[in-house]
């Protein structure tokens, strides 16, 4: 997991690059790190381009991240979902909870188009 | 008339990785094994003998079809070399092909036919040679016509679809489901059009089923689930609570977890396949999708050994209290025995068992119940292999009680039941669901833990 701030829009957007797999072994790590990232910005994008696998605990962690972001009046968007990861989101109906974009730049731009405030 | 079916392994090899453990000729299409469509069609053409020839293994097909007596035809099997052309296969099977006209079906293809059509007259009158072709396979005919060629036989035309991708397999299944249910003989009970339901299907009131739909045997659809239109549910399937199946094929032995939406997909065990893109994911998560393969012999043997050891331990622990309390309870009339015939779990087989009931009078009865002494005599049945230590609640052979169909999987009578362990009501659909679930998901160690839970629940 790599985190950096993108300052191309009016407010900084946190980009999290998720790699390989999010499962029971590292989902709690994601949740812990997310609390720290959320202190820096409430606009976040999970870039899933390099994510190959996700299981129910990983999915639970991502949904938990979304819930925390919404509590901070922000939004968490997903970008670059591969077909396999997208199938899991579709299967679990989690797709309906997130704004999903084909790549992270599109997701970043969407923050400036639709300002939550 | 006879039928020669020639299928090369390379034509169905793509299916081997996709559905491991299922012979491609037994791949269900709308819950009917693929080979049965060939058999039906052969019978409709007037064939009384079918020969299946392949360069791949046919053992599973042979085990399923046997000698064809089930359909009233004679089925035989033959092998060929991968390099063999059709004419050399015919030549090698000339003993089969001589004397009568032979319909030759070559290729891994699906024949769209209509059971109401008179193919026997049509094939008897057609000249020899190739009749239909679809690039990857063909149907041809040998021998001279029995009657003069007559093009006005009234038979519906039929067409061929080569099965060479998962997308075609999916579209074919959906096409049959939407437009062709009346054209084929399909398994299941159909009290109304576009709806075929197999045996031992549990559908709670809160579940919703929309037509057209086909559901196999031993299926449990849990509360608030929706089987939306255009769905094919195989046999031995559990659809857990509040899940939605729509426009999808759920193959045999599949568990679909809670709150899932399977839309326009194929779910096979722990595989989820998008038929259009060909994307396949292997679920490693039993909460989402998992396979419910039947226990293998080795697994069953291990389970029996573990159960026998645990039963021996319980016998040692219970012997003294049973030895002391049994005579007293007997004199008091609080030790009641009831002999009956019970289902074994094997089709048509039964065993005699005496169940003990302890009365409710006094502290001795309470102690005996708390120690589960009523089950003490049954523990010896575990050692003899008649019962499992924990399994299904033994079901009396009595028309008034629930019926165990021959094909019901998962029913294995036990001294203690999974329903007791989970503290579910010991009668009704919920019991069957919980027992079925543990029968297919259980393992020897889990069984020991469940037995402990059953003992604890009976105490409290």
Structure report:
The complex is a heterodimer of chains A (117) and B (460). Chain A has one domain (2-113): Transcription Regulator spoIIAA (2-Layer Sandwich), CATH 3.30.750. In chain A, 42% of the residues lie in helices and 30% in strands. Chain A has four helices and five strands; from the N terminus they run ββαβαβαβα. Chain A has helices spanning 27-40, 56-71, 83-91, 104-113; strands at 2-6, 13-22, 43-54, 75-79, 99-101. The longest helix of chain A is centred in the middle third of the chain and has 16 residues, at 56-71. Chain A is globular. Chain B has 460 residues and is an alpha/beta fold. Chain B is built from 13 helices and 31 strands. In chain B, the strands form eight sheets. Chain B has an eight-stranded mixed beta sheet, covered by helices on one side. In chain B, strands 5-4-1-6-9-8 form a six-stranded mixed beta sheet, with helices on both faces. In chain B, a hairpin with a 6-residue loop joins strand 28 and strand 29 (350-358). In chain B, helix 8 packs antiparallel against helix 10 (376-383) and helix 8 (297-332) runs parallel beside helix 13. Chain B is elongated and about 90 Å long. The model of chain B is unreliable at 404-408 (pLDDT under 50). Chains A and B meet through helix 3 of A and strand 23 of B.
First-to-last CA distance of chain A: 29 Å
Q: Choose one word for the global shape of chain A.
A: globular
Proportion of helical residues of chain A: 40-55%
CATH architectural grouping of the largest domain in chain B: Alpha-Beta Complex
What would you report as the Rg of chain B, rounded to the nearest angstrom?
27 Å
Please, what is the average pLDDT of chain B?
83
* CATH architectural grouping of chain A: 2-Layer Sandwich
Number of domains of chain A: 1
Give the C-alpha Rg of chain A. 13 Å
Counting helices, strands and paired strands, the structural category of chain B is alpha/beta
Give me the number of helical elements of chain B: 13
CATH class descriptor name of chain A? Alpha Beta
**Straight-line N-to-C gap of chain B:** 70 Å
Chain pair sharing the greatest interface? A-B, 13 and 17 residues
Instruction: List SSEs of chain A in N-to-C order.
Output: EEHEHEHEH
Number of strands of chain A: 5
What is the mean pLDDT of chain A? 86
Relative strand content of chain A: 25-35%
Reported for the largest beta sheet of chain A, the result is: 5 strands, mixed
């Amino acid at each position: 997991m790599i985190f950096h701030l993108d300052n191309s829009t009016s407010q900084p957007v946190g980009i999290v690059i998720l790699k390989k797999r999010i499962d029971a072994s590292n989902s709690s790590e994601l949740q812990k790190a997310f609390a720290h990232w959320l202190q820096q910005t409430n606009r976040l994008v999970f870039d899933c381009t390099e994510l190959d696998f996700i299981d129910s605990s990983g999915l639970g962690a991502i949904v938990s991240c979304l819930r925390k972001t919404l509590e901070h009046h922000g939004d968490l968007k997903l970008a670059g979902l591969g077909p396999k990861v997208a199938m899991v989101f579709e299967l679990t109906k989690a797709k309906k909870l997130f704004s999903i974009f084909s790549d992270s730049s599109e997701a970043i731009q969407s923050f400036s188009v639709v300002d939550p405030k | 008339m006879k039928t020669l079916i020639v299928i090369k392994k390379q034509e169905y090899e793509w299916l081997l990785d996709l559905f491991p453990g299922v012979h491609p000729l037994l791949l269900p299409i709308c819950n009917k094994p693929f080979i049965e469509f060939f058999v039906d069609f052969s019978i409709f053409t007037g064939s009384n003998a079918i020969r299946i020839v392949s360069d791949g293994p046919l053992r599973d097909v042979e085990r399923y079809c046997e000698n064809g007596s089930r359909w009233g035809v004679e089925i035989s099997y033959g092998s060929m070399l991968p390099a063999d052309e059709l004419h050399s296969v015919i030549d090698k099977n000339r003993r089969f092909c001589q004397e009568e006209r032979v319909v030759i079906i070559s290729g891994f293809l699906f024949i769209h036919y209509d059971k109401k059509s008179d193919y026997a007259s049509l094939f008897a009158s057609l000249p020899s040679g190739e009749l239909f072709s679809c690039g990857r396979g063909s149907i041809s005919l040998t021998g001279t016509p029995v009657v003069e060629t007559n093009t006005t036989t009234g038979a519906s035309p039929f067409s061929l679809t080569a099965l060479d991708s998962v997308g075609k397999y999916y579209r074919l299944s959906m096409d049959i489901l939407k437009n062709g249910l009346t054209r084929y003989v399909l398994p299941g009970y159909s009290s109304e059009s576009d709806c075929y339901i197999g045996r031992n299907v549990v559908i709670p009131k809160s579940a919703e089923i929309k037509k057209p739909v086909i559901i196999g045997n031993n299926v449990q659809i849990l509360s608030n689930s929706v089987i939306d239109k255009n769905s094919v549910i195989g046999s031995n399937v559990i659809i857990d609570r509040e899940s939605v199946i729509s426009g999808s094929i759920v193959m045999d032995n599949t568990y679909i977890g809670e709150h899932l939406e399977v839309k326009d997909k194929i779910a096979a065990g722990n595989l989820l396949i998008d038929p259009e893109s060909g994307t396949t994911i292997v679920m490693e998560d039993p909460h989402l999708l998992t396979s419910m393969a039947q226990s293998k012999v080795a697994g069953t043997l291990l389970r029996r050994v573990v159960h026998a050891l645990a039963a021996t331990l319980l016998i040692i622990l219970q012997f003294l209290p049973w030895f002391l309390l049994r005579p007293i309870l007997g004199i008091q009339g609080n030790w009641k025995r009831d002999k009956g015939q019970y289902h074994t779990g094997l089709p048509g087989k039964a065993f005699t068992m005496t169940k003990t009931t302890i009365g409710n009078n006094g502290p001795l009865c309470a102690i005996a119940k708390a120690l589960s002494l009523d089950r003490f005599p049954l523990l010896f049945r575990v050692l003899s292999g008649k019962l499992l230590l924990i399994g299904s609640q033994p079901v009396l052979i009595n028309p008034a009680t629930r019926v165990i169909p021959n094909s019901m999987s998962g029913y294995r009578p036990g001294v203690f039941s999974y329903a007791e362990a989970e503290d579910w009501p010991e009668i009704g659909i919920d019991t069957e669901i919980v027992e079925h679930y543990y029968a297919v998901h259980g393992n020897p160690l889990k069984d020991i833990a469940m037995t402990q839970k059953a003992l604890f629940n009976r105490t409290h």
